[in-house]
Design goal:
The complex is a heterodimer of chains A (about 525) and B (about 160). Helices cover about 40% and strands about 15% of the residues of chain A. By secondary structure, chain A is of the alpha/beta class. A five-stranded mixed sheet of chain A has the order 2-1-3-4-5, covered by helices on one side. In chain A, strands 13-12-16-14-15 form a five-stranded mixed sheet. Chain A has a four-stranded parallel sheet with strand order 8-7-6-9, sandwiched between helices. Chain B is α+β, with helices and mostly antiparallel strands. Chain B has seven helices and five strands. In chain B, strand 4 and strand 5 form a beta hairpin. The two termini of chain B are about 25 Å apart. Classes of the chains: A alpha/beta (about 525), B alpha+beta (about 160).
Chain lengths: ~525, ~160
């Protein structure tokens, strides 16, 4: 009997040697005459266990990890093909607490199916959302997205339903759907994991959007740092087209939607939606003034729905299971789930999809298991390079858009980067300014010049030159950038800097400010 | 002479393959760089003419994006992630080690033309930091020792 063995094809797994493990398993199986079918699945998101090998047994899938090629011989010796015991054995995959306690809606299939198999996608509930959307029509589809409470998962958390409605109601001879896959925030990889682990869910989400809004052309703008994701998307789009899930007559409905992948070129600013549109048009990624909104005048001046990967990949489950099902998860005005990404100095890094509302502490310790180095976690940056640094005293904040806004922080794209007590927060603040200087598009002065001056001021603070006066100057500069920049790059770079100053003043050689004053 | 001829052909074929797309400039530039490793300055007027743009437009786009290079890189491009998640796991020490062991700075190429060293701001491998990309291959949890092993591997194909 042929036994199915899974070795992830996810970038992170490959970066830790998954390809060599896969080859070793095939070679060992051939040597022993064992009949093995190798599937290169997506990653389950338990990244500290990668490469994590799974075997389909009569008792469900059993996991082993982290596996190196040197372990393969002993895995076969211990009959891992039938779930045999082994020092690397993790038991039934679904029962691993890290996974069992998650609420996977958007990531329901990632790690389970063969990402390149349209048949796997269909047998695991794929394209039910599109069928439903075709049944109820465009207006009802848009209403379902609005009713679900879905907010933009790229970071800005703008209500998706409002964007969709605006594009729907704007009349034009051509409309576009654009997927923002320029996932540049450090500490984030959920877009990549979807594109590599379940590309069809993104394709389906975009197709639903295209048909609902009357947009016949879609673009996925993938960053150039993600070559594996780009290749997976290209292959999946070709399969979908071949089988009539993309093209001029989708599922015989008479509806048309085509999809193209475009590669970015290493500019962080192109994750900002108007800059991304400029880049797609073949220009420098310089941001545009808003208004006009992209929903009214977007790509090539036409109404354009531009959403992040996770936003679009959440649409199929919303259509399939209903807006009520989705909005049942979460708290306050943060509805549904968010795939949080645990990164940096953390013992159990990976992807944790949970309903909004759990606390940062639960994420860091119950899932993350504390720091990787074993030292105390001192600071956590949530929401990428423009997100605030949070001290231990704020770890009980629930992960909810409004709760985070309330402490001058943001959830953003859900990246959580942990640092242990060896971190120098003045250096991290300097890095935030430096990053802004490198990545500024140059359109507005507070960002372009402010970031350069900011690095200089922080350098003076670090060496102790007129420290108090320069800290006051830095705060003033941050205020100017925050209020005077055109987009979130200049406007939010002050978040990590001011939060570092507030919560870790000792790293700047400053006296802790009297909170009562 | 033959090298110029080669790059002319590469530019022409890239324009032919990608120039029909709406907003074709980035796909054309990628196609050229994928073919010959960089976008040579002499390609700028050719691209501008074919796409009905000014030379300034084309030059402006090439210079805006970190990814495009106007001169050949080394035979291998080694990119070290220096973003926050990797910094939390020792990326700065890895960066310093890479610079001293290869005896180059960022945006420089080793004397034997084998390796160009570049910084990169996130490779999306943030739970397996520090990360390094060698050409199109990604590596996670790269200690200075593992970095040396990787570089020795490249040395064999230098």
């Amino acid at each position: 009997m042929t036994i199915t063995v899974y070795v992830p094809r996810d970038s992170s797994a490959i970066s830790l040697g998954a390809d060599a493990v896969a080859s070793a398993i095939v070679a060992e199986a051939v040597k022993r005459g064992a009949s093995v079918r190798l599937v290169r699945n997506g990653s389950r998101g338990l990244l500290w266990l990668e490469p994590m090998v799974e075997v389909a047994t009569s008792n469900g899938r059993m996991a082993y990890g982290p596996v190196t090629p040197a372990d393969v011989h002993s895995l076969f010796e211990n009959d891992f093909l039938h779930g045999g015991e082994h020092p690397l054995g993790l038991g039934a995959t679904e029962k691993i607490p890290y996974l069992e306690n998650q609420e996977r809606l958007t990531f329901a299939r990632v790690g389970i199916v063969d990402p390149l198999s349209l048949d796997d996608y269909l047998t695991s509930g794929g394209y039910r959302g599109l069928e439903r959307a075709l049944e109820i029509g465009g207006a009802a589809t848009v209403q379902a997205v609005a009713d679900s409470g879905l907010r933009g998962r790229g970071g800005a958390a703008f209500p998706a339903g409002i964007k969709w409605k605006t594009v729907l109601e704007t009349q034009a001879d051509q409309k576009y759907v654009v997927c923002n896959a320029d996932e540049g925030d450090s500490g984030t990889f959920s877009d990549r994991m979807i594109m590599e682990g379940d590309p069809f869910v993104l394709i389906e989400g975009m197709t639903i959007a295209g048909i609902a809004l009357g947009a016949t052309q879609g673009y996925i703008y993938v960053r150039s740092e993600y070559p594996y994701a780009e290749a997976t998307l290209e292959q999946s789009i070709a399969s979908a087209r071949e089988r009539g899930y993309l093209g001029d007559n989708i599922l015989q409905s008479g509806q048309r939607f085509n999809l193209e992948v475009r590669r970015g070129a290493g500019a962080y600013i192109c994750g900002e939606e108007t800059s991304l549109l400029e880049s797609l048009e073949g220009k420098r990624g310089v941001i545009r003034f808003k208004p006009p909104l992209p929903a009214i005048q977007g790509l090539f001046g036409k109404p354009t729905l531009i959403n992040n990967v996770i936003s679009l990949a959440s649409v199929p489950v919303i259509l399939d299971k209903g807006a009520e099902f989705y909005r049942h998860y979460g708290m306050g005005r943060s509805r549904g789930t968010l795939p949080f990404q645990l990164a940096g100095n953390i013992k159990h890094g990976g992807l944790v999809e949970k309903a909004f509302g759990l606390t940062l502490r639960e994420l860091l310790y119950d899932y993350g298991g504390g720091s990787a180095t074993g030292r105390p976690i001192r600071a956590v940056q949530v929401g990428g390079p423009l997100g605030a640094y949070l001290p231990v005293s704020q770890f009980d904040t629930p992960l909810d858009y409004e709760a985070f806004a309330g402490i001058s922080a943001m959830i953003g794209h859900g990246g959580v980067v942990a640092f242990d007590d060896t971190v120098d927060m003045a250096q991290m603040a300097r890095y935030a300014m430096e990053f802004c200087a490198i990545e500024s598009c140059g359109k507005c002065t507070p960002c372009r010049i402010g970031s350069v001056r900011g690095v200089e001021v922080i350098d003076k603070i670090i060496v102790g030159k007129n420290r108090d006066a320069n800290i006051a100057l830095l705060r003033d500069l941050c205020d100017t950038m925050l209020n005077g920049s055109l987009c979130a790059l200049g406007g939010m770079t002050p978040y990590p800097i001011v939060s570092a100053l507030e919560h870790f003043p000792e790293d700047f050689g400053a006296r802790r400010q009297d909170k009562a004053a | 002479m033959s090298e110029v001829q080669f790059s002319d052909d590469a530019v022409a074929s890239a324009i032919q393959a990608e120039g029909w797309r709406p907003g074709p400039l980035l796909p054309v530039l990628h196609a050229i760089q994928d073919r010959i490793g960089h976008v040579p300055p002499e390609a700028v007027p050719v691209i501008a003419k074919a796409l009905n743009l000014s030379r300034a437009d084309v030059h402006g786009v090439i210079s805006f994006y970190h990814h495009f290079r106007t001169a050949p890189a080394g035979r291998h491009v080694v990119r070290i992630c220096v973003a926050e998640a990797c910094q939390a796991m020792g990326a700065n020490a890895l960066r310093d080690h890479a610079k001293s062991s290869l005896r180059v700075g960022f945006h420089e190429t080793t004397a034997d033309g084998a390796i160009s060293l570049e910084p990169v701001y996130c490779l999306g491998n943030c739970a397996c930091s520090p990360s390094v990309m060698v050409d199109d291959d990604l590596f996670g949890r790269v200690s200075p020792e593992r970095f040396d092993v990787l570089m020795r591997g490249l040395g064999e194909t230098r």
